[in-house]
């Protein structure tokens, strides 16, 4: 059944697509979970909708409420869609060094954007949002980095969907930002298929984004539980761009840059399994499509120029 | 054979502004001790007790060492070690 009562009801239940051309051997297979097919085009629809639903159930959100959220883009876009449908005002705090398309999309869905300084990336967005929250105690910060409803969306949705479509799954590879995706899938797999390896692909940005004043300003999301993760890779923009182009070239899938980082980590797992002579069915998450990143030149310029243009950006 | 250690901006006060330094060691712990002998003060910013500091991430050939033995993680010739502060994503 693919009929839904409303747009919000259609979130999730995304297709799982085989990647025969990228898979290194008949018994080492890669599969793409197409989260770009959610209503606003990213995996964040799941977390945003679940966070809003839970906040309504708990009485935190009431008609006319204002939602405040630090986000590098996709969560804000998802919240903006849900807020529009349910009549909330949304204020997003977003680093100024994010792609122009994200700002345009947020504006289109009616969100207000407060820019935070480029240096320090999302760390600064979190800090600015917390300060705004203190000044406006009536605003509701859903706070994706620490809200259990973020991970729960994947525990209840993404995880079970993967296991149902591919009971022989051996690895799940996803991006590590708020950690919500991996925490939810990881917890679900730990309970239902404990041998599944949970692989995190974390974007490695340019120096500007790590520009903290001191180490104590570092940030680990409250949701993060490393015991649910098998291994974690840091992937730079050059590898992410290279892989996102490879995915387009070989499988015809037009994905965003964080997905490039995920493909890079997934291929490393595939090669490792192939060398060890082990069977593998590796699910990788397509977080969003490439539309929002066209202005970065990541798909059209040479690799050196793409790397240079992304160096100061929060690109994932 | 030396291992390259990439240092984040915030810790370059300990390396005279160098973006990368080289060192030797069969484990991460030995490497950090070796680098500390030429760049005193760095170790205390990276290590607390028996492990890495909470807001410090160390990657060997892009893999987070917390999942491959932590300070006891084995190193080989020509490995690249990247040190980064933990920052928010999403």
UniProtKB/TrEMBL annotation, chain A:
Q: Write down the chemical reaction(s) this protein catalyses.
A: [CysO sulfur-carrier protein]-C-terminal-Gly-aminoethanethioate + O-phospho-L-serine + H(+) = [CysO sulfur-carrier protein]-Gly-NH-CH2-C(O)-S-L-Cys + phosphate
User: What organism is the protein native to?
Assistant: Microlunatus kandeliicorticis
State which Enzyme Commission number(s) the record gives. 2.5.1.113
Q: In which pathway does it act?
A: Amino-acid biosynthesis
Q: Which residues bind pyridoxal 5'-phosphate?
A: 74, 177-181, 258
Broad enzyme group: transferase
GO annotation, biological process: cysteine biosynthetic process from serine
| Cofactor(s) named in the record | pyridoxal 5'-phosphate
Q: What is this protein called?
A: O-phosphoserine sulfhydrylase
| InterPro entries named in the record | Cys_synth, Cys_Synth/Cystath_Beta-Synth, P-phosphate_BS, Ser/Thr_deHydtase_PyrdxlP-BS, TrpB-like_PALP, TrpB-like_PALP_sf
Taxonomic placement: Bacteria, Bacillati, Actinomycetota, Actinomycetes, Propionibacteriales
A single GO molecular function, which one? cysteine synthase activity
Q: Which UniProt keywords apply?
A: Amino-acid biosynthesis, Cysteine biosynthesis, Pyridoxal phosphate, Transferase
| CDD domains per the UniProt record, alphabetical | CBS_like
The UniProt family comment states:
Belongs to the cysteine synthase/cystathionine beta-synthase family.
TrEMBL record, chain B:
**InterPro entries listed in its UniProt record:** Beta-grasp_dom_sf (IPR012675), Mopterin_synth/thiamin_S_b (IPR016155), Sulfur_Carrier/Prot_Modifier (IPR052045), ThiS/MoaD-like (IPR003749)
Q: Which SUPFAM superfamilies match?
A: MoaD/ThiS (SSF54285)
Pfam families (alphabetical): ThiS (PF02597)
PANTHER family, per database record: SULFUR CARRIER PROTEIN CYSO, SULFUR CARRIER PROTEIN SLR0821-RELATED
What is this protein's name?
Molybdopterin converting factor small subunit
């Amino acid at each position: 059944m693919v009929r839904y009562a409303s747009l919000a009801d259609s979130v999730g239940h995304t297709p799982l697509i085989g990647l025969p051309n990228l898979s290194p051997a008949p018994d080492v297979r890669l599969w793409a979970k197409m989260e770009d097919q959610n209503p606003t085009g990213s995996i964040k629809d799941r977390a945003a909708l679940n966070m809003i639903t839970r906040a309504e159930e708990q009485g935190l959100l009431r008609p006319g409420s204002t939602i405040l959220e630090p986000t590098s883009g996709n969560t804000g876009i998802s919240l903006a869609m849900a807020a529009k449908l349910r009549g909330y005002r949304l204020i997003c705090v977003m680093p100024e060094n994010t792609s122009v398309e994200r700002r345009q999309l947020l504006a289109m869905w009616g969100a207000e954007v407060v820019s935070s300084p480029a240096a320090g990336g999302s760390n600064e967005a979190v800090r600015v949002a917390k300060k705004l929250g203190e000044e406006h105690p009536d605003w509701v910060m859903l706070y994706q980095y620490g809200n259990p409803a973020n991970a729960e969306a994947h525990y209840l949705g993404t995880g079970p969907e993967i296991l149902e479509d591919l009971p022989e799954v051996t690895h799940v590879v996803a991006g590590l930002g708020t950690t919500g995706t991996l925490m939810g899938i990881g917890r679900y797999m730990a309970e239902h298929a404990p041998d599944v390896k949970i692989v995190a692909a974390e974007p490695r940005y340019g120096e500007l984004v790590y520009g903290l004043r001191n180490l104590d300003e570092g940030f680990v999301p409250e949701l993060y539980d490393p015991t649910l993760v098998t291994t974690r890779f840091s992937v730079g923009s050059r590898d992410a761009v290279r892989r996102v182009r490879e995915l387009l070239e070989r499988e015809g899938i037009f994905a965003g840059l964080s997905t490039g980082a995920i493909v890079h980590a997934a291929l490393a797992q595939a090669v490792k399994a192939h060398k060890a002579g082990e069977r593998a069915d590796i699910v990788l998450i397509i977080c969003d499509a490439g539309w929002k990143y066209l202005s970065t030149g990541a798909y059209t310029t040479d690799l050196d120029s793409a790397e240079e243009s992304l160096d100061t950006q929060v690109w994932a | 054979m030396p291992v390259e250690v990439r240092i984040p901006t915030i810790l370059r006060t300990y390396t005279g502004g160098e973006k990368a330094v080289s060192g030797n060691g069969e484990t991460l712990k030995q490497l950090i001790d070796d680098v500390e002998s030429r760049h005193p003060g760095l170790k205390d910013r990276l290590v607390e007790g028996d492990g890495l500091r909470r807001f410090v991430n160390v990657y060997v050939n892009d893999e987070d060492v917390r999942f491959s033995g932590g300070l006891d993680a084995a190193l080989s010739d020509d490995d690249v070690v990247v040190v980064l502060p933990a920052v928010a994503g999403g």
